[in-house]
C-alpha cells in the first residue's frame, strides 16, 4: 500500500499545438509548437477547387480536398482512395441541433461541431472530452490537439481545414447578402 508521500504525480503528455503561418485554410504552412518544426504545407490551386496538405519534410501528399460545384466534395489521404466528403464527415443529428459531423478516427466515432468558445471542437466518442479545437482569439489560427489523438492528426487537421473554410464561405455569403439587402431576410421577386 502506498502512502500519500510515496505517490509521484506525472504530468500528462503535453497538448499538440499546430500553428498556421497565415489566417488561411487554403494557403499556409503549419508548425508544431513549441519546437517550431514545420510539419505541413497547405496549398490550393488557382480556382480554389483543390487543396492539398503535404508533409513538410517529404512533400508527399497527406490529404487532398476537392471542392465541386454540382457533385459532392471529395477527400483522399496519402494518395489513397477518393471518398465523398459526406461519407467521410457524416452529418450528425443531435438533439441540440448544433451543426455536427461524425469523424471516424483511431479512437472511434468522434463528433466535430461548432463551439461557442473554440469555434470548432472535436469531442470524444462519449462527448465527454474535447480532443481538438481552435485556440480562441489567435491570428493566425492554432489548432490544439490532445496527445491521445496524435495518430489521427492528419485526418483531424484536414477536417478542421475543410469545415472552417466552409464556415468562412457561409459567413462571407451571409455578410454579402446583408450588405446588399440591409434589414431584410431573403426576398423573392416574382414577375407576371
Question: How is this structure best described in words?
Answer:
- The protein has 192 residues and is of the alpha+beta class.
- The protein has a single domain (14-171), classed as Beta Barrel (Porin), CATH 2.40.160.
- It has two helices and 13 strands; from the N terminus they run βββββββαββββββα.
- It has helices spanning 85-88, 153-180, and strands at residues 16-20, 28-33, 37-44, 50-55, 61-66, 74-77, 83-84, 89-92, 100-105, 108-115, 119-123, 130-134, 142-145.
- The chain has a 13-stranded antiparallel beta sheet with strand order 7-6-5-4-3-2-1-13-12-11-10-9-8.
- It is globular and about 50 Å long.
- The chain starts with 15 loop residues before the first strand and ends in a 12-residue tail after the last helix.
Amino acid at each position: 500500500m502506498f502512502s500519500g508521500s510515496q505517490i509521484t504525480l506525472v504530468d500528462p503528455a503535453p497538448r499538440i499545438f499546430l500553428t498556421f503561418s497565415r489566417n488561411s485554410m487554403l494557403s499556409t504552412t503549419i508548425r508544431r509548437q513549441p519546437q517550431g518544426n514545420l510539419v505541413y504545407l497547405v496549398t490550393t490551386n488557382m480556382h480554389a477547387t483543390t487543396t492539398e496538405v503535404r508533409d513538410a519534410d517529404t512533400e508527399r501528399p497527406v490529404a487532398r480536398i476537392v471542392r465541386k460545384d454540382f457533385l459532392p466534395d471529395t477527400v483522399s489521404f496519402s494518395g489513397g482512395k477518393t471518398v465523398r466528403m459526406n461519407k467521410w464527415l457524416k452529418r450528425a443529428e443531435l438533439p441540440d441541433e448544433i451543426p455536427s459531423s461524425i469523424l471516424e478516427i483511431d479512437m472511434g466515432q468522434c463528433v466535430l461541431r461548432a463551439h461557442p468558445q473554440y469555434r470548432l471542437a472535436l469531442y470524444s466518442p462519449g462527448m465527454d472530452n474535447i480532443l481538438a479545437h481552435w485556440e480562441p482569439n489567435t491570428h493566425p489560427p492554432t489548432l490544439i490537439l490532445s496527445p491521445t489523438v496524435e495518430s489521427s492528426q492528419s485526418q483531424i487537421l484536414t477536417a478542421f481545414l475543410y469545415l472552417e473554410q466552409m464556415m468562412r464561405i457561409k459567413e462571407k455569403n451571409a455578410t454579402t447578402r446583408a450588405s446588399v439587402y440591409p434589414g431584410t431576410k431573403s426576398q423573392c421577386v416574382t414577375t407576371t
